[in-house]
Specification:
166 residues, alpha/beta
């Protein structure tokens, strides 16, 4: 909007939304500029590549397939690798593939299978190799669950469509 009186209300709404998301996720700041959760996750992974200088992303199979496909496309286009972390009984379980080239570990909370991931373990495994922890979190679930920020998530992304955006 070009008129200040229109812009002010729009900017206030974005500020209130970002404040709510930061509180739900237990993070210090939030950004509302991504289109959806899948692209936010891929952008977050690319960000960790820039910060860490590493070329591999480790993503749990508990992250929805369409999110992983977006990550694959983003990664392929810039020459980066994606490793999948296996799940057992729906929970992310096999972190053995993490190494010194891992820029980030990506898990979902709750995950695609409905399991509430052990974010403390994910944080510890990421720390073991010096990687960042990205959590794809359901903002509605975070109203009841311990927020990802309290587990030390470096970046938390999500999709607010479940708040009622048709």
């Amino acid at each position: 909007p070009y008129q200040p009186e229109l812009s002010q209300g729009y900017l206030q709404t974005i500020y209130e939304f970002q404040t709510m998301i930061a509180e739900l996720y237990g993070m210090e700041v939030a950004n509302a500029s991504m289109y959806d959760g899948a692209t936010a996750m891929a952008e977050a992974a690319i960000l960790t590549h820039g910060i860490k200088g590493r070329g591999t992303f480790a993503v749990s199979r508990g992250v929805p397939p369409n999110y992983r496909q977006v990550l694959d496309t983003y990664s392929w286009s810039v020459g980066l690798k994606v490793k999948e972390i296996d799940t057992t009984d729906g929970e992310t379980s096999d972190y053995s593939g993490l190494d010194e080239d891992t820029a980030c570990v990506i898990v979902q909370y709750p995950n695609f299978f409905g399991v509430i991931e052990d974010l403390a373990r994910a944080r510890a495994e990421a720390d073991r190799v010096g990687a960042a922890l990205i959590v794809v979190a359901d903002p509605t679930a975070c109203a009841l669950l311990k927020p990802p920020g309290e587990f030390g998530a470096d970046i938390c992304v999500g999709n607010s469509q479940r708040f009622g955006v048709p």
